[in-house]
Amino acid sequence: MEDVPGRPVAAVPDEQGSDEQQGQDGLRGLTPRLIGPEIVAVFAVSLGASALLSLIRLVGALTAPKELGDQHAVLVGSLAPGRPWLDLTLHLAGIAVNVAPVGLVAYLLARSGESMRTIGADWREPGRDTLRGAALAAVIGGTGLVFYLFAFRSGINLNVVPDSLPDAWWRVPVLVAEAAQNGVLEEVLVSGYLLHRLRQRGWSPWRSVGASAVLRGSYHLYQGFGGFVGNIAMGVVFGRLYQRWGRTMPLIVAHTVIDVVAFVGYGLLRGRVSWLP
């Protein structure tokens, strides 16, 4: 889309050098008044809805006869037990449906004269993005595991079961696809799009990161209070790094790697180590 001579463009200065294209593209057809409703609409059909359901599930767990630690939160489970082909089809369809909001974000960015490149969701810097993502995954993944074990043994978290799929040929590919789905959906929406739009609306960096982090924690409430707090901490780190780098892709890489290790590693370690619930 090209600039129209004489057309007013509302641009917000880039305080920390992120969203590098916005200074050139600004906002076309999107006023600050419309940013709030747009954000609400995007999350009402995606992770905001997940947050509501997650809260309800937590209330259900808290009011159940069993203690939190005696209950299970399955991340990737069978959708059609005993019917492997139907199970596979349902998982693939679910992944496609779950990443659809990313397409919505791409469309809305294009409508405002921007693109996925604006939030750094592209492969312009594959080497740097991969290295940053891998390093971040090592730090966050290791710390997150320790915190989860502490939260579980403290009785404030459910027993999180990353994988309960049948031992079918498609098990590992589906786990990797589920991990990639989580990385793309969450980081594009919660790190890239949300922080970008909140900055355009005039929010301060820390206020924006706080909102993003609380949202991230809220749709993990189904895991218990440990999942909530742990993901808020992860959200603060990821949010500040996005504001510093102006790139969503390293966060996508990191999130995907963390989930791949959790999903696949759980199946390899289950029953073989004493410290894993």
From TrEMBL:
Residues of the CAAX prenyl protease 2/Lysostaphin resistance protein A-like domain: 169-260
The keyword Cytoplasm is assigned to this record: no
A Pfam family that the UniProt record links to this protein: Rce1-like
Keyword set, alphabetical order: Hydrolase, Membrane, Metalloprotease, Protease, Transmembrane, Transmembrane helix
GO-annotated biological processes: CAAX-box protein maturation; proteolysis
Keyword Kinase: no
GO molecular function terms noted in the UniProt entry: endopeptidase activity; metallopeptidase activity
Spans through the membrane: 39-59, 88-110, 131-151, 221-242, 249-269
InterPro entries assigned: Rce1/LyrA-like_dom (IPR003675)
Chain spans, region Disordered: 1-28
The protein, known as: CPBP family intramembrane metalloprotease
Organism: Microbispora cellulosiformans
